[in-house]
């Protein structure tokens, strides 16, 4: 066993044949599922089965509150499945044998890609696997705010209103479909998506972000947190929104310029904000804006049994496939 461990090559450095021969010889792999926010039991059972059927060892670390627990758990693992768990340079450093990290989900801003790449660790995500759950939460959030957080005060219907979608990826496309199903007028902005995609979906393609904000009664965010998008949604865009508009955030808190959001909401008492990721200044916002804001207690867009099973099993299959065949289809640190 020690020999297998010591002869393990970096997948970035070796000749393919030698690499696969080594993989074939590597009979023992330890795969850790580390989820501060646990998967549904059915997903964990399914992951365990995939890992054990492949002849590998399964390990589980759930609901950890101390980073030290994660650092200790990753020490001897070959593969790691995570959710929003932070794989920092410190974690990468502690994981002496790690070869692959799969983020069971879409966004991988929680993984230090540079640190992984430097150590030859492959990082993957499981795009699309939890999208439906997030899209359903967007529908829930729009209606929740339109009905004054389910209080008896007369609310508004979403039907007939304009829904703007910022970023038309896996989640955005499903949100568009559900919005149309609710009788909303749906438009989207995504400079990285071909016009034919919008055309096929019967969704209006808007050619500027300003225009999307100006024309959306509900604006749903689906951008990842990157150097380009961090703090990109703030005062200027928000004050362009029509009277009574609602900003729905199931993406990342980092894309919001919180000072700008607060300023816009102070100046515009009609604006509302609902988020699946509490803002850093959420307590202040709750105090200032009352029922005009709402944040879930924990990020729960992808927290359904179905999404957990889809993303968790996909992650386990991707790891096994990587070790058995070298498949890197979903690698994000190329
Ligand atoms: C994602 O990027 O896939 C979602 O934000 C889900 O995150 P979670 O797995 O932590 O719920």
Distinctive features:
about 325 residues; alpha/beta; Rossmann fold; 2 domains; 12 strands; binds 3-phosphoglyceric acid
CATH H-level superfamily title of the largest domain? NAD(P)-binding Rossmann-like Domain
CATH architecture of the largest domain: 3-Layer(aba) Sandwich
What is the H/E order?
HHEHEHEHEHEHEHEHEHEHEHEHEH
Question: How many E strands?
Answer: 12
Strand content: 15-25%
Average predicted confidence as pLDDT: 94
Gap between N and C termini: 29 Å
Helical stretch count? 14
What kind of assembly state do the chains in view correspond to?
single chain
Structural class by SSE content: alpha/beta
Write a structural description:
With 334 residues, the protein is an alpha/beta fold. It folds into two domains: 2-129 and 305-325, NAD(P)-binding Rossmann-like Domain (Rossmann fold), CATH 3.40.50; 131-295, NAD(P)-binding Rossmann-like Domain (Rossmann fold), CATH 3.40.50.720. 40% of the residues lie in helices and 15% in strands. A seven-stranded parallel β-sheet has the order 8-7-6-9-10-11-12, sandwiched between helices. A five-stranded parallel β-sheet has the order 2-1-3-4-5, sandwiched between helices. Strand 1, helix 3 and strand 2 form a beta-alpha-beta unit. The model is unreliable at 1-15 (pLDDT under 50). The structure holds 3-phosphoglyceric acid.
């Amino acid at each position: 066993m020690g020999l297998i461990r010591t002869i393990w090559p970096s997948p970035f450095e070796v000749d393919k044949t030698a690499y696969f021969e080594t993989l074939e010889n590597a009979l023992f792999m330890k795969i850790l599922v580390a989820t501060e926010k646990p998967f549904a039991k059915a997903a964990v059972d399914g992951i365990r089965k995939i890992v054990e059927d492949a002849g590998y060892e399964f390990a589980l670390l759930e609901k950890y509150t101390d980073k030290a627990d994660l650092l200790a758990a990753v020490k001897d693992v070959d593969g790691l499945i995570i959710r929003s768990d932070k794989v920092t340079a410190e974690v990468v450093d502690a994981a002496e044998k790690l070869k692959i990290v799969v983020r069971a989900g879409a966004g991988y801003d929680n993984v230090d890609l540079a640190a992984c790449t430097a150590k030859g660790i492959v990082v993957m995500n499981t795009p699309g696997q939890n999208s439906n759950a997030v899209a359903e939460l967007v529908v829930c959030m729009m209606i929740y705010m339109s009905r004054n957080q389910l209080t008896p005060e007369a609310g508004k219907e979403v039907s007939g209103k304009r829904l703007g979608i910022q970023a038309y990826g896996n989640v955005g496309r499903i949100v568009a479909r559900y919005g149309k199903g609710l009788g909303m007028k749906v438009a989207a902005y995504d400079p990285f998506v071909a016009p034919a995609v919008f055309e096929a979906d019967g969704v209006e393609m808007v050619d500027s972000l300003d225009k999307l904000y100006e024309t959306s009664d509900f604006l749903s965010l689906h951008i990842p947190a990157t150097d380009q998008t961090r703090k990109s949604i703030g005062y200027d865009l928000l004050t362009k929104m029509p009277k009574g508009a609602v900003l729905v955030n199931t993406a990342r808190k980092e894309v919001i310029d919180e000072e700008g959001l607060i300023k816009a909401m102070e100046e515009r008492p009609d604006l509302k904000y609902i988020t699946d990721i509490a803002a850093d200044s959420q307590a202040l916002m709750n105090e200032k804006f009352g029922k005009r804001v709402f944040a879930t207690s924990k990020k729960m867009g992808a927290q359904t049994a179905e999404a957990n099973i889809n993303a968790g099993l996909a992650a386990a299959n991707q790891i096994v496939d990587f070790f058995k065949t070298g498949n890197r289809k979903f690698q994000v640190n190329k």
